[in-house]
Amino acid sequence: MSDHELAADLATQAGTLLLDVRAELVDASGAERKASGDKRSHEFLMEALAAQRPDDAVLSEEGADDPVRLRSSRVWIVDPLDGTREFSELDREDWAVHVALWQDGQLSAGAVALPAQNVTLATPSVPAPPPAPAAPRIVVSRTRPPAVALQVRDALGGVLVEMGSAGAKVAAVVQGLADIYVHAGGQYEWDSAAPVAVARAAGLHTSRIDGSPLQYNRPDPKLPDVVVCRPEYAEAVLAAIAAG
């Protein structure tokens, strides 16, 4: 099984497990669903990667950070449950599972599963989104849209689209349901690695908000900002951020 196929398979399987957790805990509290989903998906991914790629390192949101990854040429960067709040709300579909592979300085494979939508987006081949509408759609958190996203909306005459997890937001751009995702104010490598790998495979622009490259498997896994957008919007988005 290739790395691309493994990323897609594991993200999809973890998503199926999470749907089972939801079904089992339908009468539980949201906090219980969050905790169980995080734990069970993480354990599944760690066991599966240990079996399928025993020589590779892993960086997971739910695991202790092992510095051995900094000496490794292959590191899986995973978020077992991206969007725990949305997962805990039984009527929401905007949560995801992220599985990415960093190899020799680059993201080389990645998959974003959207289990409640029965969708997995995975490298190496991701269709480009359909043509954009006249007014760009900027996807933001439903609770705390960042100031940079508001700057971009105002500069480009766009509209905001509220959504949950980072993976769901990037997937919306890939699928043509939105056009721009801009985030600033706090994320980690596992929040964006798989979504960025998928976005790049679809031909989208990806960068930091200052236009510099996104880099992964760094000693500090904090990666606080990201831009993912249709390439035709990239120059205007970055200019709007810089002007603000």
From TrEMBL:
GO terms for molecular function: 3'(2'),5'-bisphosphate nucleotidase activity; metal ion binding. Pfam families: Inositol_P. SUPFAM superfamilies: Carbohydrate phosphatase. It catalyses: adenosine 3',5'-bisphosphate + H2O = AMP + phosphate. Gene3D superfamilies: 3.40.190.80, Fructose-1,6-Bisphosphatase, subunit A, domain 1. It comes from the Bacteria. Mg(2+) binds at residues 61, 79, 81-82, 191. Its cofactor is Mg(2+). Keywords: Magnesium, Metal-binding. One of its GO terms (biological process) is sulfate assimilation. PANTHER family: 3'(2'),5'-BISPHOSPHATE NUCLEOTIDASE 1. This is 3'(2'),5-bisphosphonucleoside 3'(2')-phosphohydrolase. It comes from Mycolicibacterium sarraceniae. The lineage of its organism: Bacteria, Bacillati, Actinomycetota, Actinomycetes, Mycobacteriales.
